[in-house]
Specification:
Elements (H helix, E strand, L loop, with lengths): L7 H19 L4 H26 L5 H27 L24 H14 L30 H10 L1 H12 L17 H26 L4 H27 L17 H10 L3 E3 L2 H6 L6 H6 L8 H15 L5 E3 H14 L15
Parallel strand pairs: 1-2
Helix pairs in contact: 1-9, 1-12, 2-3, 3-8, 7-8
Bound molecules: zinc ion (ZN).
Length: about 375
């Protein structure tokens, strides 16, 4: 961590002001949020179905195919980000809707929702950017901080990053299994897995099976004369969705100034210190309302980390207040345009591809 830690009094007043933003927003959560998420779900379901029809029309003109693929990619992005990620965080559990809640919702992606909830909601959101505890940090594949010793494989990590981006849904699906060393590597001595290893394995394969069947067998067979063009369209839509979601997530945590922490630094932290770490470890993207929706409001990654259970459509308004509170408390608030933040991600991936040279200023201070 590079920033000097604010005094206990500053952190206490900071905590109170962040809590006040939370309470004020919570008092407004209600029918308008329920109406909003139902509207997005209706729109997404309609878009998903019509995109499949437009892909089939590709036999009339290839532009239909292109439009259909883009529509399907958009439907998958909305499903995964504005709907899935937020619903599975429990942001709409208060609605008591049998489908729109964190226990039952399942998304259109090969990663099993229960597995994702275990490591993302609990681990990543609690231990954000703590090296050794947050397994989302670099996904065990990339070296993005000098806390992690350099290895030869880091030399070509830019290509590893591009592959990870392209195949992101598979990375998300495999994440918990990799950590539990289900298929490769020495079995972990201690595991906190609440289900058995075989249950984890069967949930993994059954979700993959369902998705592969849907995208690469069911829909292509249903449109049999254009089997290959439908199959290829589904594949392209999945790849576009993967690139988009991984890029947004990388911009939220791996920008140049996003900081990392050691376990030692985070022991017995107060709520204020926890807020402080969430802010230093995340970064925001500025943009229009449609842009925020397409990122599932992860463009406000800082607010998502401060208030993961508040309906995300409130984040842009909360962001203005949080930024102001940070300013008055001398706490850095990392925000910028999409292009700027993305360039710093690329810079970070490249920078840590190489071993640290003596005397070189590290991007983060560990
Ligand atoms: Zn999240």
């Amino acid at each position: 961590m590079t920033t000097s830690i604010p005094s206990a009094e500053t952190l206490l007043s900071f905590e109170q002001e962040i809590n006040a933003i939370r309470d004020e927003t919570l008092s407004k959560v209600g029918q308008a949020d329920a109406d909003y998420i139902r509207r997005v779900i209706r729109f997404q379901r309609g878009l998903d179905l019509s995109s499949r029809l437009v892909i089939v029309l590709g036999f009339i003109h290839p532009l239909f195919w292109v439009a259909g693929v883009l529509m399907l990619a958009l439907a998958k992005i909305l499903d995964n980000m504005e709907i899935g990620h937020n619903v599975m965080h429990g942001q709409y559990d208060w609605m008591n809707d049998p489908h729109i809640n964190s226990r039952n919702f399942e998304w259109d992606i090969v990663g099993d929702g229960d597995s994702w909830k275990r490591y993302h909601n609990h681990e990543h959101h609690t231990y954000t950017n703590i090296i050794g505890k947050d397994r989302d940090y670099g996904y065990g594949l990339l070296r993005l901080s000098d806390d992690i010793p350099w290895r030869k494989k880091n030399l070509w990590q830019f290509f590893t990053y591009l592959n990870l981006s392209l195949l992101f849904q598979w990375g998300v699906a495999y994440h918990e299994l990799a950590a539990e060393r289900i298929f490769f590597g020495k079995r972990r001595k201690e595991s906190h897995l609440p289900i058995s290893r075989s249950e984890l394995k069967s949930a993994f394969f059954s979700k993959i099976g369902k998705q592969v069947f849907k995208d690469y067998i069911f829909w292509p067979l249903l449109c049999f004369p254009v089997f290959w063009s439908v199959l290829l369209g589904n594949l392209c839509a999945n790849l576009i969705r993967n690139l988009w979601t991984s890029t947004i997530i990388f911009c939220g945590h791996f920008t140049e100034d996003a900081q990392t922490f050691s376990e030692e630094e985070c022991k017995n932290e107060t709520r204020g210190q926890w807020y402080y770490r969430q802010i230093l470890g995340s970064s925001n993207l500025e943009g229009a309302r449609w842009f925020h929706i397409l990122t599932g409001h992860l463009s406000c990654q800082i607010e998502h980390h401060l208030f993961p259970d508040i309906p995300a459509r409130h984040y842009p308004a909360m962001a203005q207040k949080v930024e102001q509170v940070c300013k008055t408390h001398g706490i850095p608030y990392n925000t910028g345009s999409f292009a700027h933040q993305y360039l710093t991600v690329v810079k970070r991936v490249l920078r840590y591809s190489f071993p640290d040279k003596a005397g070189q200023e590290p991007l983060t201070n560990h």
